Amino acid sequence: HPGYGMPIGSILATKGVVVPNAVGVDIGCGMCALRTELTEIDTPALKQILGEARKLIPLGFAWHEEAQDAALMPEGHEGLMVVERGYVRALKQIGSLGGGNHFIEIQKGSDGYIWIMIHSGSRNLGYSVAKWYNQAAIRLNERYFSSVTKKMELAFLPIETKEAKDYIKEMNYCIEFALANRKLMMTRMVEAMTRVVGDFEHDEIINKAHNFATWENHFGENVMVHRKGATRAYKDELGMIPGSQGTKSYIVRGLGNEESFRSCSHGAGRRMGRKQAQRELNLEEEIALLEAKGVVHGMRHAKDLDEAVSAYKDIDEVMANQQDLVSVEVELEPLAVLKG
User: Alpha-carbon dihedral of residues 106, 109, 114, 118, nearest 10 degrees?
Assistant: First the structure.
């Protein structure tokens, strides 16, 4: 669907340049999934778990009131101009969900186990880095009369420039921060569940970013591959593709298809813009869709319709269209969801 410069859900490979808007403003945004040893959780327990989670994890625009332990943060922020400026704020934002399409879901897998899936990014840190270096790219492109105009919103940084090298360093920090953010939320979701159902074992998390750029070799050339709302799907690599809060999500295994630069979708994708969904969808009908599936949810107001089931594409069709990119390992049905 439409995005600044390039659509959300696309891949761009470049030679000798990096394009901040081809990564996007939420650098490092991605998903984590964790399989628990639990096989059942009833609805009253799910409601209790979401209540406990809300005490531990700030949602939407909220942050922690107190700075979190600096040991939870990635190392190496010193000397990164934009990151260093936002570091103190980031200490209060780590372990918080953010808004938009970010979510925490408790799911039941086709393997018989309860899963937790989290979709979140780098909060204000990634946004600040993206904005700063996109502006730097615009200035450089205008200075050298680039054929990539400001209106195209794809200003680039030549890879040998200081600006490009600095952007890549700061981008990589934001990717690590986004992972640390998801890891802390996952730890606190396990804590919330433990408070309600008691101790349980679980696997290691599966992590996948879907807003990043990195050097890769494709078709015999080293290129900078930008994924903006797209997931890497190298052969046998595990990943996640969620639907909407009322539809299935999937644990998938990459098939390494070179025609897609070994990538796949990062979700169902939007069918309607946010404002359009709020104008056109019916709140009672969307709530009924979730209630019919027994999903514990937080949809209460017309403003919540931007994340309604009907605002998203049919995940079954999306999965059918990428059978040459990934194979399905586990199907996940939503049981309870927290949205930003």
Answer: -40
CA 120: distance to chain centroid? Answer: 5
| Catalytically annotated residues | 266
CB neighbours of 223 closer than 8 A, spacing ≥ 6?
13, 14, 15, 215, 216, 217
Reply yes or no on whether the pLDDT at 4 is more than 90.
no
Q: What does DSSP say about strands 157-158 and 103-109: parallel, antiparallel, or unpaired?
A: unpaired
In 3D space, the residue among 33, 306, 323 whose CA is nearest the CA of residue 190 turns out to be 33
CA angle 104, 110, 113 (to 5 degrees): 60
Is the separation of the CB atoms in 30 and 121 below 8 Å? Answer: yes
Phi, psi angles (nearest 5°) of residue 238: -80, 145
Distance (Å, whole) CA 335 – CA 246 = 9
Query: Please, are residues 79 and 170 in contact by the beta-carbon 8 Å criterion?
Result: no
Distance of alpha carbon 314 from alpha carbon 248, whole angstroms: 10
Buried b (16+ CB within 10 A) or exposed e, 222-256: ebbbbbbbbbbbeeebbbbbbbbbbbbbbbbbbbb
Phi and psi (nearest 5°) for 339?
-115, 155
Cβ neighbour number for residue 298 with a 10 Å cutoff: 16
Tens-digit pLDDT profile for residues 192-219 = 999 999 999 999 999 999 999 999 999 9
SS (H, E, C) 95-162: CCCCCCCCEEEEEEECCCCEEEEEEECCHHHHHHHHHHHHHHHHHHHHHCCCCCCHHHCCCCEECCCH
Task: Give kind and range of the element (H or E) at residue 241.
Answer: strand 238-241
Model-wide pTM > 0.90: yes
Residues 61, 259: Cα–Cα separation, whole Å: 38
Cα atoms in the 13 Å half-sphere on the side-chain side of 297: 23
Tell me, what amino acid is at 47? K
pLDDT band at 100 (very low <50, low <70, confident <90, very high): confident
Rounded distance, CA 34 to CA 116, Å? 5
